[in-house]
Structures are given as C-alpha cells and as structure tokens.
Amino acid sequence: MTWSVDSWKARLCAQQIRYDDAAGVEAAVAKLRRLPPLVTSWEIERLKKLVAEAQMGKRFLLQGGDCAETLADCQPDIITNKLKILLQMSLVLVHAGKMPVVRVGRLAGQYAKPRSKLTEERDGVVLPSYFGDLVNRPDFTPEARHADPRAMVDAYGHAALTLNFMRSLSAAGFADLHHPEYWDLAFLSRADLPVELREEYTQASQRLAEALHFMEALGETTIDDATRVEFYTSHEGLNLHYESAQTRAVPRRKGYYLLTTHLPWIGERTRAVDGAHVELFRGIENVVGIKIGPKVDPADALSLIERLNPNNEVGKIVVITRMGSAHVARALPPLVDAVRRAERHVLWVCDPMHGNTISTASSIKTRSFDDILFEIEQTFGVHHDCGTFLGGVHFELTGEDVTECIGGGLTEEDLDRNYASVCDPRLNYRQALEMAFRVGQWMKRNRPRPTSPP
Ligand code: PEP
Ligand code: CO
After folding, report:
1. Cβ–Cβ under 8 Å, residues 454 and 208
2. Ligand 1 neighbours by CB, cut-off 6 Å
3. Dihedral of alpha carbons 293, 298, 304, 310, sign
4. What is the model's pTM?
C-alpha cells in the first residue's frame, strides 16, 4: 500500500472528530499547510539520536506535562513553572541515575484528547464530549462543544507562542533554576513522610545542591550534557487533519516529517494496526510513541511496532506502557518478552498515570500517589526480570500547586481546594519533585548495562 499524507483518510479513524463544516476544515488545513513548521527535521533527528542512546542504556527519558494543555494556560508563569519542574526533576534523575536525561514536555500542542465516551450527558441533555482546545471547548453548551475547525489554527498559534517562549528560556539557560535555594523542598518536612525516606531524600537533595554549586563554580557550560537545558515537545497525534497538514517533505532529507512536535504519540484508543492513526504515523521520520494498556495482545503490539518501524531503526519507537498498578505484574511481562524475543529496538517508558485513574465517592477523578509509585517500582522489576530495562517515565504533572492526586501530602478532602485540570488529575509541583526523588532511587538500584550500537 502506498503511503501519502492523506492515505489515512481511507482508513477507519478511531475517535473521529465530527466536523459539520467541510469547507472550514479545508480552509484550516490549507492555512496550516502554508504556515512555517513548529519544529525542524534537525531537532527531530537529534531527538532520535538521543532516544537511540537511551535505548542503549546511556540516557533516561523524562516526559511530562498536562493531560490536556489549554489555550488559556498559555501564560508566561504557567509555562515557566512547567519547565521548571521538568528541569528540576531531570536534575534529580541525572544526579541519582548518573546519566543524562532527555527532557520531553507534554506541551506546546497537547491540545487534543481522546475520550472514552464520544458524548456527555448532563440532566438529560446530550452533547459531544470535550475533545481538547484543538477541537472544541469544555463548557457544557452546544456552541462550546461544537467542533470548530478554526480551533486548529488557533491552537497552532498558541503552540508556537509556547514554543517560542520555551526556546528563549532554554537559550537563557534557566540560570536561577539551578540554584538550590530556588527549589521548594517543603515536602521533606511533611509529617507523613517515613523517616528513612526523609533521610534518603534529604541526603540526596544535599548532595544535589553541592553538585549544582560545584558545577556552577566550574561554569555550567563545561559540564555540558548534565546541565544543558534542552527540551523537546510531544503530544498525542489525535486530530489527523491537524497533524497531516503539517506533515511534509523537507529539503535535503529523505522522507516526511510531522512538524507540529518532536515526538508525537499514538494513544491507547487509536493504535489499531489498520487504523488511520497508524497509517499516518507509519510514513513519518519522527520518533513515535505508542501507548499500551493492560488489554494488549503482545502479538498485536509486535505487528504495530513492525508497521511503524519496518526497518527496525534504532531510536524510532518509544513504547509507553500504562498498565495500572493492579495489572502491571501480569500484563507487562508477556509484552516485554515478545518484543525482546523479536529483537525489536524500542525504548521502554512507564506511564504510571493512565492505568491508575479512580473516582472518589463524590465522583471526582483522581489518582493515588502510592498506586503511581507502585506501578513504576513494579515496572522496574519486570524489566529487570526480563533482561530489559526501563528507559524513561511519563507523568501528567504541572508546576502549579493543584490538588488533583491523593497522597504525597494530599488527602481526599484537599481535592476541592484547587482542582484545575480539564481532563485527568496531575501531580502538583511537590508531588512531582518527590516522585523524581523516588524514581532516582530506583534508577540507582536498576542501572542498565549500557549496550553498544547494533
Ligand atoms: C493521555 O496520555 O492523556 C492519554 C489519553 O493516554 P492513553 O492513550 O494512554 O489513555
Ligand atoms: Co491523561
């Protein structure tokens, strides 16, 4: 079957967004096709090289950001705080894991959401679900929930604004963020933190502070890889009108690049091997993420990996497993084993968020900090037992002081205080930082043996 930027249109599209304005879609797509790309093929190839190194056990990947980024959150302090927490987490991981970290934000384009139900009912009124700001708006009115093709262009603009600010902050080196006194380590004195953990975290943070001071004294630029502030973007490639509009050939390179983001991923609900999403993604040169949940058939996952990466290129595929703490011990080993036996090159990343969403008695969507920790710990263990290694972690988090996940300092009663997510619950700043300390401890114990390039 020959591939083209539009060949996905002949395939069944899960989570199909229903536009009733075909001319509007055409106009939006035509406009997006003319606009300059958000990222370049050079950056994409550089990320592929970093992911290839991570597949060899020489780097660790940290991916994180909102479940659903919103246009309203395109504000300097919110963006800065998101980059700050990702940067701080990465420094904790660099220090504990003794290896460089590839930082990938779920940002500058994480505007489209798959939904378990295509419609939502409230008091007998049925409207389309909210599919993210790239498609419609969250308010429960027919106007807001109407899929508006112009939102694609608007979202594209906001992604560009976000990325522009990110690039400027990165270029300036985030100098002050390296200062340990700028870190909020208040969680270390939390009463419910077990004494041994407090000890370990305190020591780790003191050593990290010393290391940062030391690096600064040397002049940061001399310790290039450990402190270099390089960020990549990622988002779920859900809306194929939007993604294909920015998929193009570039001068002096072979193939096609999807240029709305460095690392697009295919979600658990859209990864059918013959489906539209896999069709578009099989034709692009980007590193591609695949989310895989506990119901996976390992043979299907292998077909999917082969379809997306027929030449078994190194650095190309990131498998993001999101099994849930209750299923990971059962569901992950057969998958890992099948991929390992087939000698497929993938980077194994754990998303401990999406398999651990629960509802409270008052129907608030939340996640337990302990379940999240448990899934990561189990995932490290499964890889160890299978002779593979965990190469990265994927979180829904924010740099703000939200109250969306329980544990790590918050109880169910806190959820009402500042629940701001328009979709899934995220770790707040302190929860995310504590998570990094914990992952760092496990990285120390589960250090992969680096392999050579195949
Ligand atoms: C997500 O990452 O927000 C998401 C919807 O994930 P999944 O496809 O794994 O359910
Ligand atoms: Co989510």
Report:
1. no
2. 67, 114, 236, 267-269, 291, 322, 354, 424
3. positive
4. 0.95
**Nearest atom, ligand 1, residue 322 CA:** 9
Instruction: Out of 296, 350, 424, give the residue to mutate to test ligand 1, the one with the largest number of ligand atoms within 8 Å of its CB.
Output: 424
| Residues 360-400: tens digit of each pLDDT | 999 999 999 999 999 999 999 999 999 999 999 999 999 99
Q: Which two tokens stand for residue 364?
A: 């608030």
Partners of residue 350 on adjacent β-strands = 321, 393
What is the best residue among 304, 322, 323 to mutate for testing ligand 1's pocket, by most ligand atoms within 8 Å of CB?
322
Q: Is the pLDDT of residue 178 over 80?
A: no
Whole-number Å distance, alpha carbon 324 to ligand 2 midpoint, is: 13
Rounded mean pLDDT of 108-127? 96
- 329: enclosing H helix or E strand: helix 328-341
Residue-level pLDDT at 175: 54
Q: Which residues pair with 365 in a beta bridge?
A: 359
Nearest C-alpha neighbor of 104 from the set 231, 266, 262, 259? 231
Report how far ligand 1's centroid is from the alpha carbon of 264 (Å): 12
64 phi, psi to nearest 5 deg: -170, 160
Residue with the nearest Cα to atom 10 of ligand 1? Answer: 268
Q: How confident is the model at residue 1 (pLDDT cuts 50, 70, 90)?
A: confident
Residues contacting residue 179 through CB under 8 Å, at least 6 positions apart: 212
- Which of 268, 423, 424 gets mutated to test ligand 1 (max ligand atoms within 8 A of its CB)? 268
Two tokens at 95? Answer: 């220090």
Q: Which atom of ligand 1 is nearest to the CA of 424?
A: 3
Tell me the CA distances in angstroms from 143 to 130, 136, 169, one per residue in order: 12, 9, 37
Closest by Cα among 287, 233, 225, 286 to 83: 233
Tokens of 105: 């934000």
Q: Which helix (H) or strand (E) is 51 found in, with range?
A: helix 41-55
Q: What is the pLDDT of residues 244-275, one digit of tens each?
A: 999 999 999 999 999 999 999 999 999 999 99
